[in-house]
Write a structure and sequence with these properties.
392 residues; alpha/beta; Cytidine Deaminase, domain 2; Helix Hairpins; 5-stranded mixed sheet; 14 helices; globular
Length: 392
């Protein structure tokens, strides 16, 4: 197949629309089910690059959950604790395969943003992963292959219209890439930068210790940022992104946005949230939305008289700011990556409040000394990579 006609472009008024190989060659994909659209393919191809690099860097199965050309979550296939299985709503599925664990983590980190996602998987999609995908609201999936039973499960989603794409794992793109904007063609070399342990060798803080897990988490953060719309910042804990701030004009806004998502991920694990008495009939999306409101500043939207009765069997206590801070102070050993330098120490101050201990960033700001000094104040280890990772 040398070209594939799409329903329309980014918006319904943008026609015609298609994907094809400029060199006249065969497309490296097969559509096994559904009819993916323009944005679906943007998410699929960016996500596939991300998980392929995660697998290469860590040796572990990887998954990402993409929305609007940025990852909502990314993770490798480490086993789930009982707590994580509960907050990701997969504790009823029994022991999961590594690939399914990776997607449960990627989807579960920020379930609000992952609603209606496009999924990318590093490995052949197995039955465990297909069963997990079947129960979530999602637009489609791309993987290097599918077990026969897994493919049949996926074909049954969305009344048979679920998008299933198979990609050739050996496909290597041309070294130059092109993009048209306003009728003008841009050309640049592909970002072929490989991220490994040596990427974090230049530790500039008084604390020089980067644990093996910290190096894995920093690699996950930087690979995730490589495919996230800039400016971007990514918090990672134990093999998964827990907060991604994308596309903000100010870096401190990225750090705050990603930090708030990381805080929400941790707050969802508190007993006060895990024990919320939801009514039996509540839908998964409504439950996720209720939790997001309950742990935020708009908690009265779900606790007001006349509102809580539709959500809870009994009215929960307010999760006070003091109680939330006490729980958040238990979050530790978080890794943080930034796609460009931190211009001020305020980013480090915000990161500290979300348990960050390890940082990787390019360096090169005129205020590097202030950023390093702020890290030293909290005993953080920070590596300067010397390399920016903008993506647009």
């Amino acid at each position: 197949m040398k070209e594939l006609e799409l329903k329309y472009g980014c918006n319904p008024n943008q026609k015609p629309s298609k994907i094809y190989m400029a060199n006249g060659g065969e497309l490296p994909i097969q559509v096994l089910n559904g009819k993916p659209g323009y944005i679906n393919f943007l998410d699929a191809f960016n996500g596939w690059q991300l998980v392929k690099e995660l697998k290469k860097a860590t040796g572990l199965a990887a998954a990402t959950s993409f929305k609007h050309v940025s990852p909502a979550g990314a993770a490798v296939g480490l086993p789930l604790s009982d707590t994580l299985a509960r907050i990701y709503w997969v504790d009823d599925l029994g022991e999961l395969s590594p690939l399914a664990c990776a997607y449960a983590r990627a989807r579960g980190a920020d379930r609000m943003s992952s609603f209606g996602d496009f999924i990318s998987l590093s490995d052949v999609c197995d039955v465990d992963t297909a069963k997990l995908i079947r129960r979530e609201v999602s637009d489609g999936v791309i993987a290097p292959g599918y077990e026969p039973e897994a493919l049949e499960i996926l074909k049954g989603k969305k009344n048979g219209n679920y998008n299933v794409i198979q990609i050739d794992p050996d496909y290597v793109p041309e070294p130059l890439e092109h993009k048209d904007v306003f009728g003008i063609t841009f050309e640049q070399g592909r970002n072929e930068l490989e991220i490994d342990d040596e990427f974090f060798a230049n530790v500039v803080t008084e604390n020089k210790e980067l644990t093996d897990q910290a190096k894995i988490d920093l690699a996950i953060s930087m690979i995730t940022l490589k495919y996230t719309q800039s400016n971007s910042v990514c918090y990672v804990k134990d093999g998964q992104a827990i907060g991604i701030g994308a596309g903000q004009q100010s870096r401190i806004h990225c750090t705050r946005l990603a930090g708030q998502k990381a805080d929400n991920w941790w707050l969802r694990q508190s007993p006060q949230v895990m024990d919320l008495p939801f009514v039996d009939s509540i839908r998964r999306a409504d439950r996720d939305n209720a939790i997001d409101l309950y742990i935020g500043e708009d908690y009265m939207d779900v606790l007001a008289d006349g509102a809580w009765q539709a959500i809870f069997k009994e009215k929960p206590d307010v999760f006070t700011r003091e109680a939330k801070r006490e729980w958040l102070d238990k979050l530790t050993d978080v890794a943080l990556g930034s796609d460009a330098f931190f211009p001020f120490g305020d980013n480090i101050e915000r990161a500290h409040r979300s348990g960050v201990k390890y940082i990787a960033q390019p360096g090169g700001s005129v205020r590097d000394d202030n950023v390093i000094e702020t890290c030293n104040k909290y005993g953080m280890a920070m590596a300067f990579t010397g390399l920016r990772l903008f993506h647009h």
